[in-house]
Specification:
This protein is α+β, with helices and mostly antiparallel strands. It is built from ten helices and nine strands. It is 54% helix and 17% strand. The two termini are 40 Å apart. Its EC number is 1.-.-.-.
Length: 317
């Protein structure tokens, strides 16, 4: 068993035994908050394979923990564009789970950096205590004047709006690497989507084996077999795309497009296989569909990823 497989097994067992654990407890017990943080700052110094393994298990459990924005995006932004002071000040806090952070990418809102003051609104952002923003070709840290939480359809992915009114900023470094941060976030999200899709397949298979109609399990009917076989193909193909996604913008765009649609399909087919019980509040199937739908917009819909991929495929770059 590889390190990433062992880590994934540990995370799955932990989330199963302690589903209500706080982020700080999760960070203390398993070390996921500092997964990408270099050892000199108190982290584990791991890479894309371990990140994907953890993200897949978090997606499988529909975990609300801020792994994506804090442990992946914020750490990546600080390592790529932050100066030594910013890294020494923030990375140990992030690695221990003592604080969380979120990253605002270009295009996420209408931000204006005027001298040392930041103004504007970010209508939708992942929740985090420290706000790092790419604005005016720089990476800055600022405290929003207003932070409003949304009552989201997908309660497992907290979102907030951020409003800045000439907020003083702390300049952390040049913002030249924001596309790399975005691609790492897409790769981690793709792994989460694989975990969610795989869990949908597990639920559908389990129901198909136990639910009986006309004297036999519904899984013995050809129509159900075909549905499950198609979803299995989607899940395994999505897993391959997600594991390759950390390599480049091209692979990230492939994963962002394919894994998003695979998750949406798996979540929808899970409900179809379950029938009426699949759309009830008591059954978790609807939660996976809601997560799949919200994930599909998080870093742009599949069409946006394909548009970014098109020049590479068509030979225009």
């Amino acid at each position: 068993m590889t390190l990433s497989e062992e880590l994934g097994a540990v995370v799955r067992a932990y989330l199963s035994d302690r589903p209500e654990a706080t982020w700080r407890a999760f960070a203390r017990d398993v070390g996921v908050a500092g997964l990408l943080v270099p050892e000199r700052y108190g982290g584990a110094g791991c890479g894309p394979a371990e990140t994907a393994a953890v993200a897949e298990e978090l997606g499988r459990a529909l975990s609300p923990h801020p792994f994506l924005q804090s442990a992946v995006m914020a750490v990546a932004a600080l390592m790529a564009d932050g100066d030594d002071e910013a890294r020494a000040r923030l990375l140990p806090e992030l690695a221990s789970g003592a604080t969380t952070a979120t990253v605002v990418l270009p295009g996420d809102g209408d931000l204006r950096l005027e001298g040392d003051r930041l103004s504007g609104v970010v209508p939708y952002a992942l929740a985090g205590e420290v706000v790092l923003a790419y604005a005016g070709a720089e990476l800055v840290e600022a405290v929003p004047a207003r932070r409003t939480a949304y009552p989201t359809v997908d309660e497992t992915r907290p979102l907030v709006s951020l409003a800045f009114d000439r907020a003083p900023v702390r300049r952390l470094g040049p913002g030249a690497s924001w596309t790399r941060v975005r691609d790492l976030a897409i790769a981690a999200l793709a792994a989460e989507q694989v975990g969610g899709a795989a869990r949908c397949l597990e639920m559908a298979v389990g129901h198909a084996r136990s639910r009986r109609q006309f004297g036999r399990p519904i899984g013995s009917f050809q129509a159900i077999k075909h549905k499950l076989a198609d979803v299995l193909l989607l899940v395994e193909s999505a897993r391959s795309a997600a594991r390759a996604a950390g390599g480049s913008e091209v692979f990230a765009a492939v994963a962002g497009s394919y894994c998003t649609e695979a998750y949406l399909t798996a979540a929808g087919e899970n409900i179809q296989v379950h029938g009426g019980i699949g759309v009830t509040w008591e059954h978790p199937a609807h939660r996976y569909l809601k997560r799949a739908a919200s994930d599909a917009q998080l870093f742009g819909p599949p069409q946006a990823h394909r548009a970014r991929l098109a020049p590479h495929v068509l030979g225009e770059v």
